[in-house]
Design a protein that fits this description.
Layout (H helix, E strand, L loop, with lengths): L1 H16 L42 E5 L4 E9 L3 E9 L19 E7 L8 H4 L9 E7 L4 E6 L10 E3 L5 E8 L7 E11 L11 E10 L7 E4 L12 E4 L4 E2 L27 E6 L7 E10 L3 E10 L14 E7 L13 E7 L4 E5 L8 E2 L5 E8 L10 E10 L14 E7 L6 E6 L9 E2 L11 E4 L1 E2 L3
Parallel strand pairs: 15-27
Antiparallel strand pairs: 1-2, 2-3, 3-9, 4-5, 4-10, 5-6, 6-7, 8-9, 10-11, 10-12, 12-13, 14-15, 14-24, 15-16, 16-22, 17-18, 17-23, 18-19, 19-20, 21-22, 23-26, 25-26
Amino acid sequence: MKKQVFLLLPLLLLTSCSLTNTYDYENKEYDEGKLFEVEEDSNMVVDGKEDSVYKNIEPITIYESEYDITFTTKTYFGTNGFYIYSHVENDTTVFYNKYENTDPYRNDGVEIHISIDTDEYFTYENLIKNNKITLNTLQIRTDVSNKCQTWVGNNQQTNNLYEWTQYFKPVISAVNVDGRINKKDGATGYSIELFVPYSNFNLTSAPSKISIMPAFNNANDDSYRKWFTLKGMSHNQPSSWLIINNNNEIEYPGKGYEIPSLELTAKEDDPKYNNQYAAILREVDDKNKNKVDRVSFKMFVGMDGIYTQFIIKDKEKSSYSDSIYENDGVEFYIDTIREVQPSVYRTGIYRFLIDVDNGVQTDFAMDGLNNTYPVKIATATKISIEEIEEETIYSYKYKYVFEMFVPFESINLKYSSSLMVNSSFAYKSPNEASYMERIDSANLVREDLFCIDGRWCWDPGAYWWVSKKGLM
């Protein structure tokens, strides 16, 4: 220890000699129980309850079908910050781990992601980055014990690096549990309310709009946890987040046009598809025999948008994943520009994914990008699931009918009597391999059918066709 003191002493003397002014610092005092000081709005109390300001605000609603849980989030732009009220309904076993150092995400709780860089996320420069999360982004993790963590976007562009860094930002949270914690079937749900000061984003007043992604954790015990958000959203893809303006309104293309003029039925014999051409995927064996129709895809242009129908046979149902890619499902493209030989992604192409849990993801393409990127737009979907037993060698157990309506307003189109669009599709059944053959309803390879890479296709990959005029 003597050696250490001797080495430090000259440094201390040098430092003190370099000072020309005295400097006094007094530790800031906070009210008992408070670690920080923020200015809340005079008309607001953060208590975990749905105050009157939230009553008429449109919620972001997320449904988790495996446990029949509905999660809603409402955002209110206050004078001094955002007020965010989240309610988890029908969580009958509200759980938290009593160990002191347990992270909030291991307990029942809510996560909120907020950014003020709403326009930057849609620029070409941002979309080609490895890490698309900007520095003006905040992640708030809370649980039912009212533990709260804050994380910020780190903007690091190294591959495989987590986009967020834990960093303290002042946030006020409150929890209200509808029942008892850590008791099986002892509750009906819980609510968490947050106050997030604008100063966390270096703002002195409300921005014109924000991007937001809510999520929740369902932890039934020490060993089980399921994280869930709105299908199509991702914590590292902020283009997929919803936009909310400072009138507390959710914005996205086509909003208000989701109700189609022709009813969606998700029925195989729906008459509005009777006279439409079908693209069909047939399953075959390894010798290209025993052909059985497995997937039928129909599409037509209506007066108010694009109508699509899939009829599918499946062997084992894959469902309940929070990722739309891990469930049985379909995807299709709509090319509104209809250029010949669409060998690259470009502006005017839209991608749509539907899974067996009725989850939806919508994607845009952009000139120069080598893939699509997720953006919420208005659609309407309906699905039906039927258990079947067919006398085939393929042992199909389920029949799915997926139907989707895409309003013209969502994809920047207007109706005309000559309007046609190009399309393609694929069907996905995870953990299953099979041989497939593609035909159309006339058993012909049509001249307006070709692969996305310009080659002829005889597999379940993407190919393009022209949508025919539908029943009015």
